[in-house]
């Protein structure tokens, strides 16, 4: 791939391309970051790569392997969104491969905060004689790596709150009275619901409270999208949820957070975590997800669970659908204050994305 003009032949242009291709790894690379790499020789892109699904090759390896004439590497520049690793994990260090192939110049978006890297990749490359430049499009690279960076700097997952509310501000009808028949309802349209399934495929976990499970019996899977289903995290203080509910079907990894320690009937494939429901529940849940290496989570309700994370200021992003229907009365939507980043019309629904800046 060659660039069309000298005006485009800048570090920024190549780093933007790295970010663009790295998104191919969204939802599959965790706990590894979704890195993008581009190799440039005399103003022409000769190799590209992004991080493979977890356990596979990193972006730098895939970019180098894509170069048809490896002799050009000794006079090329490699661009990466994140500092190359310098340690052995599932794969050998990328920094070692760059040195081995004789690539003389490296341009990095930002340093890796992981304690096993943390500048060591850069030091290794500089020691080998490589010319290294750091901080190109750093803000954009930070935004791109927000899940990975939040996990390793704040010791918790990147937290996305999601809910749908009616035009008059309710997320659900009033609870049923004894003897009343439950009637299905939808606040959003089918396009919005499909988008939610796409979002689920992009995050490592999905969290709901007991009342949401008992009221809606959600599957929390990807019925309307393809990809890897997230780990289900379910609050169930006294283990009210019975085996006939979807969250206990064993079809995807599920963590039940409870205070019951003397369980007599554990379910195969379900992990139980003990937390104190009388203390700071949102922080305890963050701790559980950090221990389980869940780098990002989408919290889908209900209102009490969502509000508890808002009140604890443990959230990064909120995605709020407003439908065209009205309930007149019911369960009120959470109250949130943040920076409105984007508003999108999806047929009859309006999606507002808020950031906790």
From TrEMBL:
Cofactor: record remark: Binds 1 zinc ion.
Binding-site residues, substrate: 200, 220, 223, 300
Keyword Cell membrane: no
InterPro entries reported in the protein's UniProt record: APOBEC/CMP_deaminase_Zn-bd (IPR016192), CMP_dCMP_dom (IPR002125), Cytidine_deaminase-like (IPR016193), DHFR-like_dom_sf (IPR024072), Eubact_RibD (IPR004794), RibDG_C (IPR002734), Riboflavin_Biosynth_HTPR (IPR050765)
Keywords in alphabetical order: Hydrolase, Metal-binding, Multifunctional enzyme, NADP, Oxidoreductase, Riboflavin biosynthesis, Zinc
Catalytic activity field: 2,5-diamino-6-hydroxy-4-(5-phosphoribosylamino)-pyrimidine + H2O + H(+) = 5-amino-6-(5-phospho-D-ribosylamino)uracil + NH4(+); 5-amino-6-(5-phospho-D-ribitylamino)uracil + NADP(+) = 5-amino-6-(5-phospho-D-ribosylamino)uracil + NADPH + H(+)
Cross-referenced Pfam families: dCMP_cyt_deam_1 (PF00383), RibD_C (PF01872)
Cofactor(s) the protein needs: Zn(2+)
Residues that coordinate or bind NADP(+): 164, 186, 212, 216, 302-308
GO molecular function annotations of the record: 5-amino-6-(5-phosphoribosylamino)uracil reductase activity; diaminohydroxyphosphoribosylaminopyrimidine deaminase activity; zinc ion binding
Pathway(s) served: Cofactor biosynthesis; riboflavin biosynthesis; 5-amino-6-(D-ribitylamino)uracil from GTP: step 3/4; Cofactor biosynthesis; riboflavin biosynthesis; 5-amino-6-(D-ribitylamino)uracil from GTP: step 2/4
Active site: 60
GO BP annotations listed: riboflavin biosynthetic process
Binding site for Zn(2+): 58, 85, 94
Domain CMP/dCMP-type deaminase: residue ranges: 9-133
UniProt EC number: 3.5.4.26, 1.1.1.193
Record's keyword annotation contains Metal-binding: yes
Family, per entry: In the N-terminal section; belongs to the cytidine and deoxycytidylate deaminase family. In the C-terminal section; belongs to the HTP reductase family.
PANTHER family attached to this UniProt entry: 2,5-DIAMINO-6-RIBOSYLAMINO-4(3H)-PYRIMIDINONE 5'-PHOSPHATE REDUCTASE, DIHYDROFOLATE REDUCTASE FAMILY PROTEIN (AFU_ORTHOLOGUE AFUA_8G06820)
Function: Converts 2,5-diamino-6-(ribosylamino)-4(3h)-pyrimidinone 5'-phosphate into 5-amino-6-(ribosylamino)-2,4(1h,3h)-pyrimidinedione 5'-phosphate.
Protein known as: Riboflavin biosynthesis protein RibD
